[in-house]
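Researcher: Let's do a round of design. I'm pasting the structure tokens now; please hold your answer until I've finished.
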């Protein structure tokens, strides 16, 4: 069964940084586009950043452009989200996401909490 395990969340002050990690297993990681989604309390889940299977292409929602960077290591089956200059509105649960590909469905990890507060 597909496994996606997030780590690296926590409490950080505004302006601080965090690096989220996602350890993937039980599927061919290098074949799938991946993403980080987040969900704040009372809000819909949104896709924060996406990365192509080989890591050549990335996209971001406007609110995080210039502050967040998504990356992946296909040799280690790992994905990362470097988050800088964090703001209170970045608070939420961040999910590692396997996007659908070649008939295989999307899959979400359990999530890691990020709280930006002074």
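Researcher: That's everything. Go ahead.
Model: Designed sequence:
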């Amino acid at each position: 069964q597909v496994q996606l395990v997030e780590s690296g969340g926590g409490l950080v002050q505004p302006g601080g940084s965090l690096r989220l990690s996602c350890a993937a297993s039980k599927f061919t990681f290098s074949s799938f586009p991946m993403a980080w989604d987040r969900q704040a309390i009372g809000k819909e889940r949104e896709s924060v950043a996406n990365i192509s299977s080989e890591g050549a292409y990335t996209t971001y929602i406007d609110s995080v452009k210039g502050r967040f960077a998504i990356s992946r290591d296909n040799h280690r089956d790992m994905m990362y989200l470097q988050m800088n200059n964090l703001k209170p509105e970045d608070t939420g649960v961040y999910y590692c996401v396997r996007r659908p590909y070649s008939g295989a469905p999307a899959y979400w990890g359990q999530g890691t909490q990020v709280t930006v507060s002074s």
